[in-house]
Amino acid sequence: MFCKEIxxxxxxxxPLVETRGYKKIDVFNVYPYxxxxxxFYFVCLCTNPNKHLIFxxxxxxxxxxxxxxxxxxxxxxxxxxxGAMLFLLxxxxxxxxxxxSFEAAISTKEVVVGLPFELTFTLKNxxxxxxxxxxxxxxxxxxxxxxxxxxxxxxxxxSSQTWSVELTATKPGTFNIGxxxxxxxxxxxxxxxxxxxxxxxxxxxxxNVKVPPGADDQVFIAAEFDQKEAYVGQQVTWRIRLYTxxxxxxxxxxxxxxxxxxxxxxxxxxxKRVEYINLRRKKYAVRTLxxxxxxxxxxxxxxxxxxxxxxxxxxxxAQGFLFGPKPVSLQTQPISLTVKTLPQPxxxxxxxxxxxxxxxxxxxxSVLSTDDALTIVVEVSGNGDxxxxxxxxxxxxxxxEIFEPRILxxxxxxxxxxxLHRKRFExxxxxxxxxxxEINPIFTYFNPDSNxxxxxxxxxxxxxxxxGKNYQSPNQLSNTLPSEPSVTQPSSLFExxxxxxxxxxxxxxxALPFLALGIFMLLKKRPAPSPPITNKPIIQSNHPPIIQSTxxxxxxxxxxxAGRLLKDGDPIQFYDALFKSLQAWLSVxxxxxxxQMNDADLSAILRQRGATxxxxxxxxxxxxxCELAIYGxxxxxxQMEATWQMAxxxxxxxxxxxx
Length: 659
Prior knowledge:
Layout: E1 5-6, E2 12-14, E3 18-19, E4 22-24, E5 28-35, E6 39-47, E7 53-61, E8 66-67, H1 79-88, H2 91-94, E9 96-97, E10 101-106, E11 110-112, E12 116-124, E13 128-132, E14 139-141, E15 145-153, E16 156-169, E17 173-177, E18 181-184, E19 187-190, E20 194-199, E21 219-225, E22 229-231, E23 236-244, E24 248-255, E25 262-267, E26 275-279, E27 282-296, E28 300-304, E29 308-313, H3 317-323, E30 326-331, E31 335-340, E32 350-354, E33 357-363, E34 367-369, E35 374-382, E36 400-402, E37 406-414, E38 419-431, E39 435-439, E40 442-447, E41 452-457, E42 461-466, H4 474-479, H5 493-501, H6 504-525, H7 546-549, H8 552-568, H9 571-590, H10 599-608, H11 613-631, H12 640-657
Parallel strand pairs: 1-8, 9-16, 11-20, 22-31, 32-40, 34-42
Antiparallel strand pairs: 2-5, 3-4, 4-6, 5-6, 6-7, 10-12, 12-16, 13-18, 14-16, 15-16, 17-20, 18-19, 21-23, 23-27, 24-29, 25-27, 26-27, 28-31, 29-30, 33-35, 35-38, 36-38, 37-38, 39-42, 40-41
Helix pairs in contact: 8-9, 9-11, 10-11, 11-12
């Protein structure tokens, strides 16, 4: 004999043998399915003289053999064929039939109101009919589904017939679920009744959840936060964790909760390694299945609902070898997070950034004239909520003016542990007076780790302003004021009449009516000349002047429409209306066609009409912002007010400057 120890539920290798006159294929797995006092019996795959694969049995003497856990080797080769052939065999010939039973099973003994759970009724090893479900008072129910399966366990064939229903508790309390019945094997079988404890949603666990209510099996999942409390706008990690004492082969996320009070982003890079935790005097293998970065939008107790996951549980022995892992549906319990408000009052420089942040500030020049503009580019990156974050506030000296910034670039990306965002802003500073000036940029954010507001101060921006072409100092402006007129004594009436009679202008005015009458009579007697005849056709323009088709009233009406849409908060319609109003204004002022409304042509025309470079740059900035919003899908709600104000300021300035 080739081995001394075998077991009845394991595949083992035997050497080349002759079986009932058939030659067994070389090195193949056999399955011992029956043991007597002196013999044990194998199922094996053989080839007959026609080289056809058939099933046969082997009777082998048990000389000094004992059944134990030796020489078990689950061979994958030809296992598919073995499993297929076993299905085709009559189980009454090779195997004995297991005893029938009818049982009810529930996924958890404690449930949460409003969250579904599964109840199954399983009939084993007999054929059933006329299934009757119990009364589900206190629960909402789904339709009942039925499934069937077959298998083998330790040399015995097994079959199951399962009825499944999904229940949802409508109110808290303890509910009794009665017996289900089914007619099988000539008699009526019934399940045992049991109770279910329904917990209110507020009673669910909070913070770092370890075990969901009622989870006392060998495998379960739990939802957890990485912290118990958070601030509005702070990044928090929500994850699904698998706790198991069984071998798990794969999983599938069936459904995730609705993060209604959170802004959420799915994470793809997180620690998927297995760790071991002792819980309730049991050792579990624990692994993270899914993670979300969430940002609270409100203060108070915010709830996150349940998630559902299907995991594959490996089956022992030949059953697992033939049929693969068994799918099991698991569900987390809802958890809540305490969200706190930020300390009050916040600093005046605070613009909503909560988390860990850093920034850079760069100016494009250090020397400029009063006709030029200083451009400052600010880049901010951090791990807070990008939707609650507004551009930093930059204070400038009193003899300079700063416009609202526009967003040059923004992106969100994932690091090894968290979601990060980055934004680049462009600020335009217009100096009004000459001399040396300084700007000290300061960025304020709230740090949840230290529970305080922090300030980041960039290097001081120093620049020198020289007189421009249109610059006038305050002294020059005072010198150009008109002087007071001198007061003289008026002359008498008779003196003024005498002086008038002596004037030749008086007599010329007096003769004008008579001269005009003579010219009229002369022209009336002459016939009007006929127009010359030419062979040239009369050409009529199909495009009337824009100054006639687009009037000043139309432009003003479109600006008013943009202002109304600003209050409605619709970014797409607002930027579209503002863009059309700018087109109407340029048509009225300069008679431009739409094809001429580009950066190069607009800059050239505005320079010819006397506009300063700062006004030209500001107008083009508003123009580009509208184009990006309409055609590039970058409609920023938070930039609507700033864009509207900049458009009004630049158009008012151009009305004064252009000739």
